[in-house]
Amino acid sequence: MELSECSLNSITVKGASFDRVIQLAETAGFGGVAFWRDVLDDVDLRAGAAMLQRTGLRVTSVCRGGMFPQPDKGARRLRFDDNRAAVDQAHALHADCLVLVCGAAYADLGGARTQVRDGIAELEPYARQAGVRLAIEPFHPMMAATRSVITSLREANDLVEAIGSDMVGIAIDSYHVWWDCYLRSEIARAGESLFSLQLADWITPIHGELSSRGMPGEGCIDMAGFVAECRSAGYRGLVEVEVLSDHWWAQPAAAAVRAAVDGLTRI
Amino acid sequence: MELSECSLNSITVKGASFDRVIQLAETAGFGGVAFWRDVLDDVDLRAGAAMLQRTGLRVTSVCRGGMFPQPDKGARRLRFDDNRAAVDQAHALHADCLVLVCGAAYADLGGARTQVRDGIAELEPYARQAGVRLAIEPFHPMMAATRSVITSLREANDLVEAIGSDMVGIAIDSYHVWWDCYLRSEIARAGESLFSLQLADWITPIHGELSSRGMPGEGCIDMAGFVAECRSAGYRGLVEVEVLSDHWWAQPAAAAVRAAVDGLTRI
Questions:
Q1: Sign of CA pseudo-dihedral A49, A52, A58, A62
Q2: Which of A136, A250, B14, B264 is deepest in the core (most CB within 10 A)?
Q3: What is the value of pTM for the model shown?
Q4: How distant is the Cα of A253 from the closest Cα of chain B, in angstroms?
């Protein structure tokens, strides 16, 4: 791929500031950037958006809204407020979408899934008004008890159809879905509901559920096939590199970016 | 559950010999035992079967056959020979089934899945002649690159239907499938193809893909609901406790058995 088709997600260079992520992306020749919200905490987003406009970098996503399953009404209300704040941030940065990490269930999966559906439906009018698309990210099943009960692309597609809004679609990440026997048909089904496309590779052995990931090409996922299928289904946006890796986090940010660039340009 | 409805899998007390597994199961009051093949290596299986008959313990499974995807014809032939040896062992012990860990793919998932289907079809006549049922175990997706490309109950059900033999069914393990949004309907679909039912619990955080498991009740899986759904679908056999756990492996075998018994009797 050309780097101009790619976007650098801030978590790939964890610890880098808003300005530094932009500088790294611009220097390397990326077409876009994506931000986890921890990077946005102390940023003047109006100035930030102006800086992004000067560089020509597109913001492919803000991560994250979601975490809908909560133990009680009060906690759900706090979460709703936080999700509106996330929509505001995505709006301020003209992001292509707000990624939804839908939330986990420690025991009651069915109840959690109902809360996810209701939570997205409740947030949708606010997002619509702000012009911010919501992207449900199906997560790897090993995170069902900690991050998201939405554990396959089929389930995410079912959820998108159940909600039935053109403002609600999918963020698909190779790391979470590559194992799925039904992946190809579900990507085709998702079609233009694909709002975000992210890459990270699967390296064995994993040493935990979160940060064992590899740069594209370091692991076993057929990245070229994955990207081609999403393109063929109708995905028109940039391709994010979003790699949570203890290994790369221990290296200087510039080294992580070089490795990401190496991987992306070989796809 | 009553312990007479349950079976002790040898890996739960890793390191225990064939005789010791039987003694532990009998003393605790289990209705059956199950063996990983490492335990059978130096055992006279005719004498072993006689010992089991004296105790009244049923052998619920032998683990494992499978590992069908191989790089070349020679390797596939060696694997086929080993799978026939596994069938012979299951036959000698009058086991309810031979569990199939179908095998991984490092890159070509589609090709590996074809080799799995062909491998099972090739082994089926030999198993049929021996009267040994083959139980395809859907594995957790985090093991797709290391142990099995069959990563959901839906996929296993599709495979069973494609093979179309009453000697080929399913081994279902709570640890591998609990996260699945479509679990309930796929259990109902499996019905009497359920040849083996195994329990292990999901504890967070995991520290790897293999041996982070908990005794029933130590984690987040709704064990009572899971067992009830399998019973309701038509499963008639014993319920195995099969827990790969670095924590419990570091304890004396008797302590692990006590913990298993505590968990099972609370379901």
A1: negative
A2: A136
A3: 0.97
A4: 26
